[in-house]
Amino acid sequence: MTNYKKRMQTAILYIFGILTATITIYPIIYTAVFGLKSPEEARVSPAYAFPEKLYWGNYLYILKESEFPRYFVNSVIITGTVVVVVLVVTSMAAFALAKMRVRGRHHLKMYFLLGLMIPMQVCLLPLYQTFAKLHITDKYIGVIIPQVAFGIPLSVYLFVNFFRFFPDDIIEASVIEGCGIFRLFSQIVLPMSRNIILTLAMMRAVYSWNDFLFPYTFTRSKDLQTITLGLRDFVGAYGYTDWGRTFAAVTVTILPMIIIYFFLGKYMVAGMSEGAVKG
């Protein structure tokens, strides 16, 4: 009876796992397949129907004739800069808060946590007024600064929780051997923090890549628009939408994050455990 119960529990878990995976993967497959429909078929065929003939014209248009490659490059520049800046700033700040005797470090931790409680929408108007006076609207930096600022609190929190459990013996032995603080941090601490670094890099990349609010608020020129804003190009006059090209554009938009998650997913699970559960 015990073995029967175990088999039933295992079967139920597998069923739930398969259902969850299906619910998660189906929209992605549906989007990619719909992008393979010709304009005529996209208008008249049922939405759930598989295309009678694969039509690659939508994807070729996205990659060769539309403005999407430029939007893609803009998103890569902004996302890459945000990820690098957030990781560099928060890793050093968190290590100091977790391991160094910094006066008032406990109060500083609370200040960082307060940043998690402030809705970004509340800051849009004062940010826009400030950026307009500084003449940094409609520039990369006008999008990068708020994304970095709102990415710092959570990153510091997870880094601090990870560094709290970093072995003090390793730090003390390195100091005794004459290792300076920057060498200790860059050559010993960071290589041993791979999981949490890759986790936060992926989290920041997904957030920045998918962000619509800040690029929409702080950019006007099409030359600086990101890939999320570029999706609006496929909505024509009177609400007419070329659904084949739209779904192809959405597929191109989400593909980089899917690839990143495919290769870094295991590190993200481990990093979240180290940065959150231990804390």
Automatic annotation (TrEMBL):
What Pfam families does the record tag this protein with? BPD_transp_1
What keywords sit in the KW lines? Answer: Cell membrane, Membrane, Transmembrane, Transmembrane helix, Transport
Annotated membrane topology = Multi-pass membrane protein
User: Per the similarity annotation, which family is this?
Assistant: Belongs to the binding-protein-dependent transport system permease family.
Question: GO biological process: what's one of them?
Answer: transmembrane transport
Q: Which GO terms describe its cellular component?
A: plasma membrane
Q: Which InterPro entries match?
A: MetI-like, MetI-like_sf
PANTHER family xref list: ABC TRANSPORTER PERMEASE PROTEIN MG189-RELATED, ABC TRANSPORTER PERMEASE PROTEIN MG189-RELATED-RELATED
Per UniProt, subcellular location reads as: Cell membrane
Major localization listed first in the record, in broad terms: membrane
Please give the start and end residues of each transmembrane region. 12-36, 71-98, 110-128, 140-163, 184-207, 243-264
Domain ABC transmembrane type-1: from-to ranges = 72-264
**Organism in which the protein naturally occurs:** Blautia segnis
Q: What is this protein called?
A: Carbohydrate ABC transporter permease
